Amino acid sequence: MTALDRYLEAATRANTQRSYASAKQSFVTK
pTM surpassing 0.70? Predict the structure, then answer.
C-alpha cells in the first residue's frame, strides 16, 4: 500500500464519519 493509498483511505473515512455525524445531527434537530 502506497502513501497515497493510505492518504485517500484516511480522507474517505474522515469524510464518511463527518457526513454521518451531520446527517445524524440534522435528524435529531428536526
Answer: no
